[in-house]
Every structure is written in structure tokens, then in C-alpha cells.
Amino acid sequence: MSLIWNKLLLECSLTRRINCRSISTGLSFSRNQIEGNKSEGTSTEGEQRGSISKAMQSYIERAKAHSEFMNEQHEEFNLGRRHLANMMGKDPETFSQDDVNEAIRYLFPSGLFQTKARPMMRPPEELYPKQKAAEFDASGRPYHAFFYTGRPFFFQMLHEMVNKIMKLNLITGVAAELKEESTSFINGTVWIGKEVLENRLFEKITDVQYSEWMNTLERIITHRHVEREIEYLKQFRVPLARTSLVEQVPPVLLQPDGSKVVTVERVAKKRCRGDITVRMPGTGEIIVNGETLEYFKMVQSREMVISPLQKAGLLGAVDVDARVEGSGETSQAGVVRRGIALGIVALGAESEPLRLAGYLTFDRRNKERNKPGHDSARKKWTWKKR
Q: Does pTM top 0.90 for this prediction?
């Protein structure tokens, strides 16, 4: 029995040693495999971190060049602002942008009609467009879902509008009628212009795309459930830019014979002043300083005078009596034209066609002042080589 028992103990000890060796070998193999996998993963991540896509490299270069350019423009603007302050005898530290504009207007007077064509000096942020942030990650994958359309923000906006229209179409219940209160916010307002939309999106769009954007908004406005999207639509509406005619239009006087008379006083253009009286109904007679329309020698001046009446369809229906003085024939014709336009608007003519034609707009142009040391506004000295 003792021999058998010893034999069993020996066999058990041998089997335990073999199992332990196999387990330890397996553990060592698994550890080596895990460490190898870790090293491989680390190298892969390092390669990904170290490699930057060409798109990202190009963006970094453009961003760096843009930053350097803006810094240079800032330095030049600050230097020019200090020079202007010294020329005007003011403190450069408290020299504001309004002071800059006033100094340029005083030192560099211009007779150009367009304000954008006149000399100006503004901060670089107002003159140069802002640069977009990175639209893709380091591996070159774009962030935006509409990146490959070329105008991701514009098409995302269209996508949101279409989704709103679809949600409005899914509203069940009795079909609501389009109430005037729902669309009252559009009175006196217009859609934002193409340039304003481009500034909001930081993208350039075509005229066709802008018209598609407006048509989509019009579909929302004409929907029977538009009251649910009024706040969304208001962000794209701006007040209508038009000249206030309330202060300009003179009162209408009713005569005993039933006719209406309007007198527009102190109509001005350059150095010309005039008083224009319009009577309705009339025979189409036009008197200027006691003479007929032949008071103006040039045909262009005569056409200028009768153009508001032709535009409003009142040629031959009103009488005009004008008293003008000063300046030349063209300025006097402009004064009579504006006086007639204001007069017929007061008598009930439609103002929008006349406003769009420019007949109601005050002409602010004036004679350019003489420059110090010169005989006139533009005359210079005779240049002599010797």
C-alpha cells in the first residue's frame, strides 16, 4: 500500500509541474503579445499625429500669412492715425475714428459723388474680409456635412428652410387662413441684400442662388401656418431704406373753385433756389419766371422739367408756376423738376416710381472749395523744368 501511495503522489506532483509550466508559458506569451500590440498601436498613433494632411498644411500657411498681413495693416493704420492727430493738433491716444474721418474730409476734400470713392482710412477689420476657420481636421476629413458643395453654410441654410416647410406641411387640423396679422411684420421691410447675406455666411453666392434663397423664404411666408416661423423670418428682414416724405411733402390748399394747389418753397440745388406751385386740375401749362418752357434753351433741360409728369402720367393735367434764381440752367431745371415731383406726390401721385427715378432725392453736390495757395479748386501751378 505504501508503494502504491508513493507512486500516486509522484504522478500528481509531475502533472502539477507540467500544468504550471504550460500556464506560465501561456502567460508569458500573452504578455509579450499585448506589449507588442501596444507598441504597434503607439507607433500608429504617432504616425497619425506626426502626419498632417496637405489641406491642413495649406490652411496653416494661409492663416499665418493672413495674420502677418493684418498685423502689418494694423501698424500702418495706427501710424497713420497718429500722424493725422499730430497734423490736427490733437492727442493721438484719444483720436477716435470720427476724428479720423473729419480730418480726412478737411485735409483731402473731394467732389466725388460716390462716398466709397472718396479718400478714407478705416481699421483693417472693416476693409478686409474675415478668414474662415479650419473646415477639416488634421487627417483632412471635413467637419461640415455640406463641405463638398462648395458653399456649405448657404446650402445648410436652404436645408433648414426646406425642413421647416416640411414640418409646416405635416401640421394636421383645420387649414388656417393666411391672416394679415401673421404677415404684418413684412410691411415696410425688405429681404436682406446679397452682400449682407454673403457677409453673414462668409461665402460668395451667385445671383441665381440668391434668387432661390428668396423664393424659399417666400414659400414660407405664403404658407398657411407661417405664424409658427415669424421669429425665424424676422432675422432676414430689414427696414425699407427710403426717403421720409412726411416732412418734405407740403400741404394741399383747396381753392374756392374746387382746384387743389401745392406750393413747394425753397427747393435747392447748388446755389439755385426756387418756389414751385402746382395746380390740379390744369391744362398742362408750365411757366418759369414768367415765360413758357422755352425759358430753358437746351432740350435736355426741358425734358428734365416734364419728366416727373410723364412718369406719373399727369402730363397735361396740371399747371406749374416756377420762380427760380441763381446758378445755371441745368441747376434751375433740376430745382423745377424736384419741385414738380414733390408737388404731384402731395396731390396723390404714386411716390415709389418717382423715388426710384431719383426725382425726390435731394442733390447734395456743391461747388468744391478753393485749395490754399491755388487759384481755384483744381487749378495747379504751371510746371517748368528750368
A: no
